[in-house]
Amino acid sequence: MDMQKIGKFLAELRKGNNLTQDELGERLGVTNKTVSRWENGNYLPPVEMLQLLSRLYDVSINELLSGARLNDERYKEKAEEYIAVDLMKKSKAAKKRLIISIIVACMTILAGTAIILLPALLSAPIWLRIICIALSAVIIVLGISVCCVLTIDAGVYECPNCGEKFVPSMKDFIFGAHTFTKRKLRCPKCRKKSYCKKRLN
C-alpha cells in the first residue's frame, strides 16, 4: 500500500466534499491532527474509520486503500491483492503462535522439572517437597493450557476422509492422540475419527 497516495486521495475526497480537516474530525470523532496525519500519509486510518470514510465519501474501502477510484477490473485485481496480503499476514501470525507454543511448552517442562527436583537435591523437608510438587503441577497445567490455546488459534485441522477444515473443541484437542503435525479428532462433517492434519490459517 502506498501511504502517500492514500493520504493524497483522502485529502482530495475531503476537499471534494467541501469539508475542512476540523469539520471531518468532528464528524468522525477524531482531532484535526489525526486527519492531517492520515492525509500526509503518516498513518493509515483504522478499520472502523475506513468504514466511516467509505460511507461518507461514497467509495469502497478497497478504493480508499488503493488511493484511487477503481473500475470493475482494477477493483477485482486490488481485492485479490488485499486478500493475498491478508492471508500472508494470517499465515505469519499462525506460525508465530506455533513457535510461541513450542517455547512455552519447553519452558513449562523445564520449570516443572526443576521445581520437583530442586527440593530433593537440597534434602528439603517433606512438606516443602509436597508444596514444590503441587506448584510444579500447577505450572505444568497452566503451561499446557496456554500451549493448547495458542495451537488451536494457529489454524485448522483437515479431515483426511472428506476434506472438511475445522477447529476442534478444547476437550477433543486435549484428549486427541497426536504427532507433531496430526491429531486424532472426530470430523464434525463425516463424523469419522482419524488423524487430521494441521493446516495454518
List the main descriptive attributes of the protein structure presented here.
201 residues; alpha+beta; 8 helices; 4 strands; 9% strand; elongated
Structural account:
The protein is of the alpha+beta class. The chain folds into 3 domains: 3-70, lambda repressor-like DNA-binding domains (434 Repressor (Amino-terminal Domain), Orthogonal Bundle), CATH 1.10.260; 84-152; 154-200, no CATH class. Helices cover 65% and strands 9% of the residues. It has helices spanning 3-16, 21-28, 32-39, 47-57, 61-66, 72-121, 126-153, 170-175, and strands at residues 155-158, 165-166, 182-186, 193-200. A 4-stranded antiparallel β-sheet has the order 2-1-4-3. A hairpin with a 6-residue loop joins strand 1 (155-158) and strand 2. Helix 2 packs across helix 3 and helix 6 (72-121) packs antiparallel against helix 7.
Radius of gyration: 26 Å
Instruction: Please report the number of helical segments.
Output: 8
Assign an overall shape: elongated
**Lateral arrangement of strands in the main beta sheet:** 2-1-4-3
Order of helices and strands: HHHHHHHEEHEE
- Structural class given helices, strands, pairing? alpha+beta
- Which stretches are poorly predicted, pLDDT < 50 over at least 5 residues? none
Total strands? 4
Give the averaged pLDDT, no decimals: 85
Number of domains: 3
Measured between the Cα atoms of the first and last residue, the distance is 22 Å
User: Into which percentage range does the β-strand content fall?
Assistant: 5-15%
Helix coverage percent: 55-70%
Q: Largest beta sheet, briefly? A: 4 strands, antiparallel
